[in-house]
Amino acid sequence: MIQLIRGFKDILPGEVELWQHIEKTAAGLFEQFGFQEIRLPIMEHTELFARSIGQDTDIVEKEMYTFPDRKGALVTLRPEATASVVRSYIQHKMYATDPVQKLYTIGPMFRRERPQKGRYRQFYQINAEVFGIDSPLIDAQLIFMLSALFTRLSILDTSVHINSLGCPACRPDFKKALSLFLADVKEKLCPDCIRRHGQNPLRVLDCKVPSCRESIVGAPSLGDFLCDHCRRHFATVTRSLEGLDVPFVIDGKLVRGLDYYSRTTFEVRTEALGAQNAVAGGGRYDGLVKALGGPDIPGIGFAIGFDRLTEVTGLKGKDFVKKPDVFVAALGEKSMALALEWVCALGLEGLVVEMGAGEKSLKSQMKRADRLGARHVLIVGEKELAEKTAILRNMATKVQSALPMDHIVKNVIENINSAHP
Ligand code: AMP
User: Fold this and answer.
1) Could you name the CATH architecture of 322-413?
2) Count helices and strands in the chain by DSSP H and E runs
3) Bridge partners for 76 per DSSP
4) Closest residue by CA, ligand 1 atom 2
5) According to the model, what pLDDT value does residue 421 have?
6) pLDDT in the model for residue 261
7) Best residue among 61, 119, 126 to mutate for probing ligand 1, ranked by most atoms within 8 Å of CB
8) Which residues of the chain have pLDDT under 70?
9) What is the largest CA-CA distance in the chain?
């Protein structure tokens, strides 16, 4: 039997309702804060990711699904969404009418990482991005919105970690100091970090290898190197978060795995997930729009790990599956033809409907209605045909009423509404 690809997964009926609920909650909240949805392709030119995420990042170096298309051009299944949102913002000159754009998008991403619990090769992200606002107040608002979403989804034991990565004016000094520090502990670093030390020393701060983590304990802190502008920006973000009652931890070693971030960066973690403890991450990418060929417009955004949300939400296990309002049980060819008409008409009226699936007896249809959690069963057999009625059974109270077949749809709806006003 052909099985799915390792690291990929099916989201089955029964699970998918939770995904739908999270999707609706996120979209509803983001729209309240002025965001509009954008839908993007899952494949882009490889160059887009190489130029935005950064050549010597894990994602670009080892994890992308990249292949030549039939004419030889290199294409990549997107490993993240921000690069595509920025590409689209530039390509469609969204800034021409108003540089300020607030966009969200939900969909699959692809990274060829080693699969484990909470880490997949196709996973889903919920992204929100804001263009054209330099003010630190938007940084705070975004983090507030993210926390509000976690609260709405009953995800309680999360912590927001935040840092400033500085800007092109102050980061080079920090890089220099870090590089000097790393030179002293070089022999204790993993081979990847020895290479990173030469190419992009900030990456070493992100390494998960325990010996590297130990070696960088005394490393210089970015916070001590910020220029006045970055310092003031960060102070306003943290002060605003305090004002909004969003708890956070300042984490001087938070650099995140993508190169395009500048100034505010943040990550939301939860203890509930074990090793893969990040549920969301984001930050400012003020130079990215320009670097990808657009005007010099700042940006900031975040990505939430959708799969991980479904694993930690307190709503997990809640039954979101829609129960039939009316199950039509019919016996005999004539009655079954009527059942079909009624089910279709009741469905059009907005009710959740179901009918017998070819069972031979009324009893087995009632059993199935019960198993599906139907609230009412509308029964029609020989006797009802002769009497031009149908029996509506309320499955909770067991009360049965004979309803005239004339205007049956109206009669059923009135009966249901009077039972549940
Ligand atoms: P990143 O784009 O790396 O900043 O990731 C943002 C969020 O996406 C992370 O905090 C995770 O929750 C989630 N995520 C990243 N990679 C994976 C993966 N391979 N499987 C599942 N979730 C992931």
Assistant:
1) 3-Layer(aba) Sandwich (3.40)
2) 15, 16
3) 44, 66
4) 80
5) 57
6) 86
7) 119
8) 257, 420-421
9) 95
H runs (alpha helix) in 160-263? 171-185, 191-199, 210-215, 228-243
Residues making up the chain, counted from first to last: 421
The ligand 1 atom at the shortest distance from the C-alpha of residue 119 is 20
- Determine the residue type at 409: V
| H or E element, residue 128 | strand 122-131
Q: Say what the pTM is.
A: 0.92
- State if residue 280 touches ligand 1 by the CB under 6 angstroms criterion: yes
The pLDDT, as a whole number, for residue 257 is 67
Element (H, E) at 124: strand 122-131
Query: Which of 352, 354, 356 lies closest to 336 in space, CA to CA?
Result: 356
pLDDT at residue 200, as a whole number: 83
Quick one: tokens of 384?
Answer: 């009802």
What pLDDT does 252 receive?
87
Q: Which atom of ligand 1 is nearest to the CA of 257?
A: 3
Residue 94 pLDDT? 98
Taking a C-beta distance cutoff of 8 angstroms, is the pair 166, 174 a contact? yes
Which segments of 244-398 does DSSP mark as H helices, in order?
A: 288-291, 306-312, 333-348, 362-371, 382-387
C-alpha span between 35 and 70 (Å, rounded): 37
Please tell me the residue having the least CA distance from ligand 1 atom 1. 281
Q: 191, 206 in Cβ contact below 8 A?
A: no
Residue 299 has a pLDDT of 98
Nearest CA to ligand 1 atom 17: 119
Closest of 218, 214, 206 to residue 189, by C-alpha: 214
Q: Given 3.40.47.10, 3.40.50.10310, 3.30.70.20, 3.30.930.10, which CATH number is that of 16-170+226-318?
A: 3.30.930.10
Distances (CA, A) of 285 to 22, 52, 91, 124, 249: 27, 10, 18, 21, 21
Q: Tokens 């009135």 identify what position?
A: 414
The rounded Å distance from CA 348 to ligand 1 centre is 41
Token reading at 252: 């001087």
Q: According to the model, what pLDDT value does residue 55 have?
A: 79
Determine if ligand 1 sits within 6 Å of the CB of residue 282: no
Q: Are 266 and 302 in contact (CB under 8 A)?
A: yes
Domain ranges of the chain: 16-170+226-318, 322-413
pLDDT at residue 120 in the model: 96
Residue 217 one-letter amino acid: V
C-alpha 277 – ligand 1 centre gap (Å)? 10
